[in-house]
Design brief:
2 copies of one chain form a homodimer.
Chain A lengths: L4 H15 L8 H8 L3 H13 L3 E4 L5 E4 L8 H8 L4 H6 L17 H15 L11 H14 L8
Antiparallel strand pairs in A: 1-2
Chain A binds a DNA duplex through helix 3.
Chain lengths: ~160, ~160
DNA sequence: TGAATACTTTACTTTTTCGTCAACAATGTC
DNA sequence: GACATTGTTGACGAAAAAGTAAAGTATTCA
């Protein structure tokens, strides 16, 4: 169970944008510098986020990237899902081993586990917005703990 | 956010072992056949599980693998952790971009998110044992849903 | 209108992960 | 004790992910 590089960098770039004063954006170069990644790589990540409608871009000399919505309206769940292949069928196509299709295609004891896992993760991350992540670590930590305690993840109730 | 190949295959191989009658094991060849993966690959996975003390192995002509404990005493959480690098510091070492160390090493808004995520996932998966996964998919699904509803993941209470 | 800036898009290179192979070591059987 | 069987281990090759490069397109400003 791991976070991919794109997910990590995507989240970080968005936090940078969320820290900007209202109406001000950042260029790829600036984002790259602030996150310690190359401009090219930042470009790739932001392009995906742009396609997903999470950021909007402007070309030209006054161009750059801005959040498409206020940070409080962008959830971490939404961000992560931009980069992932959340489809369960897709999962079963991989992991087919040396067979053409997964040997458990018809009846799989693991699929329910993955379902619960996906639901749980989605549920937890959908409660966390970008706005909550722009502060210092200790503060973010405190707030998230509170959030988590107030609304425990009853993932499967949906 | 993804499950790695080793985690998937590890889980599947263990379910096969859990389905065996008490006291009977399976050889690598048998496990590979039943899971549609190569013997070599099964060998690698089972070796890791053996190191972790989840299965025990026997060489020679009567050899093979067996669960080291009853299936009801082996949690999915424990299995997954065999294959993953659950350390948060390790996470920060990767994702350092073009820098030597991550630019947010001292103060990172993402770390709390990962903490909560890890805790939650661990908590959910620690409630699921191998014994619950040996049945048919629909049955497994039903039981896990019940479990989840009965004990929602109040992950951060620990 | 032309030059500078900055995003866009595709192709390529590098790195990491995954899977395989082959030689080795241990166990049981005849 | 020789042989067949089975797990162990490390090295290698293939596949996927990550990151880079470069050519292209849109925008602004002089």
């Amino acid at each position: 169970m791991r976070i991919t590089a794109q997910e990590e960098y995507g989240l970080r770039c968005l936090i940078q944008l969320a820290r900007q004063p209202d109406g001000q954006g950042l260029t790829l170069k600036q984002i790259g510098e602030r996150e310690g990644i190359s401009t090219a790589n930042a470009g790739k990540v932001l392009w995906l986020l742009s396609n997903a409608g999470i950021v909007k871009s402007a070309r030209g000399i006054k161009g750059g990237y801005m959040l498409a919505r206020p940070p409080a309206q962008i959830t971490v769940s939404e961000i992560i899902s931009v980069f992932e292949n959340a489809d369960l069928e897709e999962h079963c196509k991989n992991f087919s081993g040396i067979q053409e299709v997964c040997i458990h295609n018809a009846d799989c004891g693991i699929r329910p586990v993955l379902q619960i896992l996906n639901e749980t993760v989605r549920q937890v991350l959908s409660q966390i917005t970008l706005a909550q992540l722009v502060h210092h670590e200790c503060e973010v930590s405190q707030r998230l703990f509170q959030l988590q305690r107030a609304a425990p993840a009853a993932a499967m109730s949906a």
